[in-house]
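Priority: low. Protein: Centromere/kinetochore protein zw12. Input follows.
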Amino acid sequence: DVCLSSTRVAMEFYHAARDAILLYEVVVPVKLERKLGGINQVAVLMHNDCLYLSQEILGFAFEYRTDFPSSMKEHAVFADLAPRFQLLAEDILQRQVHLVIYNLKEAIDSADGFQNTHQMQQFESAKFSIDQVVFILEKVHIIWEPLLLPSTYRKSMCTVLESVFSRIARDILLIDDMAAEETLQHLGRIKNCSAVALLSRRWKIS
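Result:
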C-alpha cells in the first residue's frame, strides 16, 4: 500500500509501522513481566520473537525502498530499531540464565556446604540438594532445547553447568576435616556430578 500511495499517505503508513514496532517493545514486556520473571516457555518464545524482529526490521526498508515514492526513499528508516530488539532478546535470555543459576544456587545452599554428611540428617540434605539440581537441569533442558537456536541452547546450558560444577567442587574443597565415611560419600557425589555431565550428551550440549 505504501508503494502505491501518495507521499502523504505513504508517510502515514511508514510512521504507523514504526509506531507498531515501538508499541510491541513497550507493551509486551510489561504485559508478560510476571512470566519473564520465571523459568518458562513464554520467556524463551519472547526471546525468539525479539530476535526474529531484529532481523526482519533490518530488511524492511531494503525490501521495499526501490518501490517507495521518491520523496520517502531517504526518510524511511527502520534499521535504528533493530539493535533495540537484539538487546531485548539478549536481556531476556540472560535473565533466564541468571534465574536458573540462582535456583541452582539455592538448591546447593540447602546442602550446607556438604559438611558432616556422615550424619544422617546432613547426608539426606546433601542428597536432596543434588536431586534438586538434577531436577532443575532436566526442567531447563525440556523448556530450552526445543525452542532456542542450537548454538544459543548449547552456550546457555554450558554456562549453567559450569556454574553448578564449580560451586559443588568449591564447597567440597572447602571442607576442612572429612571423616572416612564422609570421604566415600563425597566420592559418590562426585560420581553423581559426572553422571550429570554425561546427561549433557542427551541434552545435546556436548
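The radius of gyration is 25 Å. The chain has a mean pLDDT of 83.
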